[in-house]
Amino acid sequence: MVTGSCLCGNVKYEISGEIGDIVHCHCQTCRKAHGSAFSSVAGVNDSDFKLLGDVQLGCYESSPGKNRYFCSNCATQIYAKKDNSKHIVLRLGSLDDDPKSKEINHIWVSQKASWYSLNSNLPEHLEFEKYS
């Protein structure tokens, strides 16, 4: 069982099955919805995804037939769903556990943020460090 939640804790969910391969989407819609350079997502079968408790998600149709679902209180993106599909597109930033999935690619790099480099080789820090 893999669990996830929103920033404020009002939305909690569990996944009983496999989480698909991880894709990093750089499309303009994902960037704006997440306020980030890209969105990391993976597919989950509808039957394997369960919201816990009595929660109402906000919903926004970001493109025809595609709805994005988010916490109505803190606005954490939880998943997207296309009409007539049998899976959700899980927003991996809301996971509390390791999805045990692997990254497979970056998509929509034609729309990636101009200020982001896919292979930046920037230093990595375990936590925030002040810069002088």
UniProtKB/TrEMBL annotation:
<keyword id="KW-0456">Lyase</keyword>
<dbReference type="Pfam" id="PF04828">
    <property type="entry name" value="GFA"/>
</dbReference>
<protein>
    <recommendedName>
        <fullName>CENP-V/GFA domain-containing protein</fullName>
    </recommendedName>
</protein>
<dbReference type="InterPro" id="IPR006913">
    <property type="entry name" value="CENP-V/GFA"/>
</dbReference>
<comment type="similarity">
    <text>Belongs to the Gfa family.</text>
</comment>
<keyword id="KW-0479">Metal-binding</keyword>
<dbReference type="InterPro" id="IPR011057">
    <property type="entry name" value="Mss4-like_sf"/>
</dbReference>
<keyword id="KW-0862">Zinc</keyword>
<feature type="domain" description="CENP-V/GFA">
    <location>
        <begin position="2"/>
        <end position="117"/>
    </location>
</feature>
